[in-house]
Amino acid sequence: MVETWNFRQIEAGDDFKLAIESKLEEASIILLLISANFLASDYCWEIEMKRALERHERGDAAVVPIILRDCDWHAAPFSKLQALPEGGKPVSRWRPRDRAWSNVVAGIRKKIDTLPRNLSAIPFLDDKAAKRASAAAYAKVQELAPVFFTQPFASREAAAKEVQELSRFLTLDQTLALSASSVPGERLAAGIILRDKLDLDFALSQRVEILEAIRRGLIDVGSRVRYRYVRAAEVQQGLVHSTKDLLRHIVMMDSDAVVREEARRVLARYALDE
Length: 274
Fold this sequence. Notes:
With 274 residues, this protein is mainly α. It has two domains: 7-114, Toll/interleukin-1 receptor homology (TIR) domain (Rossmann fold, 3-Layer(aba) Sandwich); 126-273, Alpha Horseshoe (Leucine-rich Repeat Variant), CATH 1.25.10.10. It has 14 helices and two strands. It has a two-stranded parallel ribbon. α1 (16-26) packs parallel to α3 and α11 packs parallel to α14 (257-273). The two termini are 35 Å apart. The relative contact order is 0.07.
């Protein structure tokens, strides 16, 4: 169930600051409504945005900037995150404007679908606890890895969802180690994790090691592994452009019809966006 909240729901006599801060701590998704007014507000900038990004960096919540009007937001701390509407085009510049809001709604729905089911229930972890959690998550992913090549479809999909939920505990170094593993199931799991991390952090697509991992996954000997990396590349338009040679090769030559069709769909999607 999805519940929404905004400051207009604060009732007469309630502590305004306390109400906002408590909701910031409870939220699984935090929408930043970006305009010049937001950027000029000391409270929005110093309190709300700062706390939202802290929770995002910890993995306790997902922050989604929504660009309402033209303003100088590209140097802001949240500029590394994928903004809505698509491409960061302000809502005010869309015609008709309903198209912009439809795009925003679709983007938020996609974000909700990719969130771990227990996101808001996981408490803050200090450094020692975070290290223990990441080690446990890494071990669990390794335990799940054989399922992707030994079990029927339903079991594989259940394992994929579990890996996605574990992804928030895994460091980038752990994810890259899985992507370079000699175990096919671990490479496949890394593709699932990379898709999730790229969806949360736009800046990751700019890192050379991420591009190398995606390109390596696209030429993996396992068709199920290739499929997961095609889906990971799809999250960021820049990754699609950087790997279009491999995606086109998959469309033309891949032995697996499902992988071919997925690559064709990804390329067609971004061709339409250009």
